[in-house]
Amino acid sequence: MAAGSAIQIPTRLPLLLTHESVLLPGSTMRTSVDSPRNMQLVRSRLLKGTSLRSTIIGVIPNTSDPTSDCDDLPNLHRIGTAALAVQVVGSNWPKPHYTLLVTGLCRFQILQLLKEKPYPVAEVQQLDRLEQFTNGHKSEEELGELSEQFYKYAVQLVEMLDMSVPAVAKLRRLLDNLPREALPDILTSIIRTSNQEKLQILDAVRLEERFKMTIPLLVRQIEGLKLLQKTRKSKQDDDKRVVAIRPNRRITHGSITEDEEEEEDHDDVVMLEKKIRTSSMSEQALKVCLKEIKRLKKMPQSMPEYALTRNYLELMVELPWNKSTKDRLEIRAARIVLDNDHYAMEKLKKRVLEYLAVRQLKNNLKGPILCFVGPPGVGKTSVGRSIAKTLGREFHRIALGGVCDQSDIRGHRRTYVGSMPGRIINGLKTVGVNNPVFLLDEVDKLAKSLQGDPAAALLEVLDPEQNHSFTDHYLNVAFDLSQVLFIATANTTATIPPALLDRMEVIQVPGYTQEEKIEIAHRHLIPKQLELHGLTPQQIQIPQVTTLGIITRYTREAGVRALDRKLGAICRAVAVKVAEGQHREAKPDRAEVGEGEDCKEHITEDAKPESISDTADLSLPPEMPILIDFHALKDILGPPMYDMEVT
Ligand code: ADP
């Protein structure tokens, strides 16, 4: 196609300047065009032209087109390749550009640059001609020898490749069918060569020179291939050796690390088995676990059941089958703890102490389950926590609000991936002992659904006659719950399922009066919030009248939860002030704040300590302690939500 063919290229050629790659005669290349002159060439010559002639362009390598068409042309590479533009594809993304597919025809030399704008055009002289070969300086014989040598190397190289690949077979046929003088260019563009080397081949106008230059490139490629084949072979030998050492193992390419992993997992399974054997689980559980571990050993790890079984066994090992805390019940100490933690609630505390005393005497937990019924925030949960504290037991709260599926309590059967134990077994795993205090929170909010009645499952959990062999569906073996102390809470008895209510001793926890709330706030809530926010009584002062203000104007509840939250908000605001004050220099002249006038009636007794609102000028460090008066309340909590008169 190239040298020696009858192609006569036009004597004037538009020039496409390329920098990244070198097009050699007989090969095809894709090139991206985005510089102004090159774009112009594509637009006005390739896209507008209609004749075959107009698709022939000169590709000049090693010359980048200037980014602006006002810039002068750089020095053009002397020799280029006349090419046929086979395809033009335009795109606007990421910026306007064309992609050209060009096939090299023959070399040419620039004789004279005819114009530079809008794209360069030059008068050229075709260099690759058949006459050049026959009329060359060297005798036919000599070149024939050179080309024969080249041909042999080329055949050797191609035959080292995989002949089953169609392109390789085609290349082999081409070696025989193409004129010999075309081979150096074609093979140079196929084998691994740098742009610099390609450029040198392009510049090698004399055929003899071209042959001489490409032979070392071919030899280099052949040596490279030989080395590659050698290393591949030795790797295969290594693999075979590994197979021989471990005849039972399935070995594929690169699987040595997989094997190591498998071995590690195998060790894990052995460890797990050891743990199972040394754990204190019940006999029935041990039997099941040993059976499962046997299955696990035979199972391929890729099976979903492998992970399922392993998780199951790990849970079985972790469960506190025989682990418990020692009860340290002393009624007098219990009374002190309850009194210290809670203000008022006399009736409740009395009943709890009775309950604990009977337990101490009888030394078992059979009997009704205590159920604290009352509005939110009256301290039901917190009494439960105190009971655990007095007994020296772990405490775990199980929220039942909205539970409508019995498998939430009793677990899912292990028949599908994703099955889990129920909340009771999960709770036991969390606390790690088998005698915690479980607070079943909001039993009145249990719901029924198609997935079964959770209340019925709960009955089994709470029934002292049955719960020593509670069977969670996931575990599928009995677990003894008889040591767990259950306490329930509810907002109302009306919605507690009757069968469940029957098992419980309801203790009403009424709401608090304003006075009680104030006491609770000052004895418990405020000290707790101060500690939470890293504040001390020397930094903040909340007078009782302010607390009353919060209770009456900012909250409307039977319990003290919202009151607690508001106190938290106040502490946060004060913490900011204190932190700011620590970083700020005091200013000598203090600004008077007249804004507080209309709130005077709210301001406390003697407003000697600094009020937070008086420090509206943030540049002033607050004086300690910061007094929370009504003005400050308004600042922090916003305008009162409720009217005093209403309460
Ligand atoms: P409930 O479980 O009844 O909804 P919580 O036990 O969560 O309420 O109580 C909310 C907050 O109020 C807790 O921080 C608790 O310590 C506090 N609290 C409630 N009643 C009292 C009380 N009588 N004495 C001290 N703190 C109380």
Automatic annotation (TrEMBL):
Localization (cell): Peroxisome matrix
Alphabetical UniProt keywords: Acetylation, ATP-binding, Hydrolase, Nucleotide-binding, Protease, Serine protease
Annotated Lon N-terminal domain residues: 13-222
Keyword presence, Ligase: no
Main location, first listed in the record: other
InterPro entries in the record: AAA+_ATPase, ATPase_AAA_core, Lon_lid, Lon_Prtase, Lon_prtase_N, Lon_prtase_N_sf, P-loop_NTPase, PUA-like_sf
GO cellular component: peroxisomal matrix
GO terms, molecular function: ATP binding; ATP hydrolysis activity; ATP-dependent peptidase activity; serine-type endopeptidase activity
Gene Ontology biological process terms from the UniProt entry: protein catabolic process; proteolysis
PANTHER family: ATP DEPENDENT LON PROTEASE FAMILY MEMBER
Assembly information from the UniProt record: Interacts with PEX5. Interacts with TYSND1. May interact with enzymes involved in beta-oxidation of fatty acids, including ACOX1/AOX.
Protein name: LONP2 protease
